[in-house]
Amino acid sequence: MRFGIRLIEYLGTTDDLVRLAVAAEEAGFDSVWFPHDPYMRNTWVLTSAVACHTSKIAIGSVGTNPFTTDPCEIATWLATLDELSDGRALLGLGLHATAMVEWSGLDTSDYLIRTQEATELIRRLLRGEVAEFTGKAFNWSNQCYLRFEPRRTEVPIYTCAFGQDYLELSGAIGDGSMPMITPPESAATMVPPIRRGLRLNPRKDRFVISGCAWLSLSETRKAAAADMRKMVAYFGPYFEDESLAHIGLTRADFETIRTLVRKRDYAAAYAAVTDDMLRLGIVGTPDDVIRNIEKLADLGINETNLGGPLGPDPLTAIQLMGKHVIPHFRG
């Protein structure tokens, strides 16, 4: 089992996030990722800062989408980060939901073809090709090529996806797939379409299924649960019935919370989160986390990518992972 960590901006300032990334490297995480969400701290700045303060851990973005950012800029960032980090760059390209992109008035209906074409174009640029291209989403001239030589011509591109068709595409075109396994039980329906697509993928031998779970880890389950309520209140209303059904919930169960969040009455929204809703993430002590990750391994996840609140004290949660959880899976 490999371990990734996703550091969301709610965990602190830019300096705080860099310090947590350094702690993750010390704890034995394989990779650190920053969600590339609109209107939040800039992922490219954060990844660059982490590259300058670490030496071993791989560094990537999650949900860098080909709507708000053109593939040419994604490719130049990726190649530059790879140079700065001495070959540790990763890219999580695609979407886990369309809503945040649509806030800015963008039409996301072609996300399948746009992700596929963007992946091809980024790879062509990294290989040093002239990426002249006429597609359904992108039309590039013969002036589309990198004006510098990348450190690596093949940088891993993981596909962020949702829904059966998108997950199948991720298996077909990615170096890895990054499904949101919220709740963790949803991995049972996420992995099969990825594997169907993987049959067509020439990279299948090194492919990584990086299951993106929410984590709240503490020495007591009560403290861990209290911190997870904030995450569930803010993001829970975006989940589809298909995912929520794994824990016996529907979108209708989040209607009150959805209304409170829109009113920015966050305290009331947190209080409205039920114990069943907490099952969207992995919550509890190190032993609880170990049991959950063992189940994920049985479902076909070979990298557990942990994000969300991490715990009441994110640094302590990272240290608990390094002391108890990661060693358990590495013998």
Describe this structure in words.
- The protein is α/β, with parallel strands linked by helices.
- The protein has a domain at 1-155: Luciferase-like domain (TIM Barrel).
- The protein is built from 13 helices and 11 strands.
- Strands 1-2-3-4-7-8-9-11 form an 8-stranded parallel beta barrel, surrounded by 9 helices.
Morphology? globular
CATH-defined architecture of one domain: Alpha-Beta Barrel
Number of helices: 13
Q: Quick one: how many beta strands?
A: 11
What percentage of residues falls in helices of 4 or more residues?
A: 40-55%
- The radius of gyration over CA amounts to 19 Å
Mind sketching the topology for me?
Elements: E1 2-6, H1 14-27, E2 31-35, H2 43-53, E3 58-64, H3 71-84, E4 89-94, H4 99-102, H5 111-126, E5 133-134, E6 139-140, E7 157-161, H6 164-173, E8 176-179, H7 187-198, E9 208-217, H8 221-235, H9 241-244, H10 255-262, H11 266-271, E10 282-284, H12 286-298, E11 303-310, H13 314-330
Helix pairs in contact: 1-2, 1-13, 3-5, 6-7, 12-13
For this entry, give a set of tags.
single chain, about 325 residues, alpha/beta, TIM Barrel, eight-stranded parallel β-barrel, two-stranded antiparallel sheet, 13 helices, about 45% helix, globular
Brief write-up:
This protein has helices spanning 14-27, 43-53, 71-84, 99-102, 111-126, 164-173, 187-198, 221-235, 241-244, 255-262, 266-271, 286-298, 314-330; strands spanning 2-6, 31-35, 58-64, 89-94, 133-134, 139-140, 157-161, 176-179, 208-217, 282-284, 303-310.
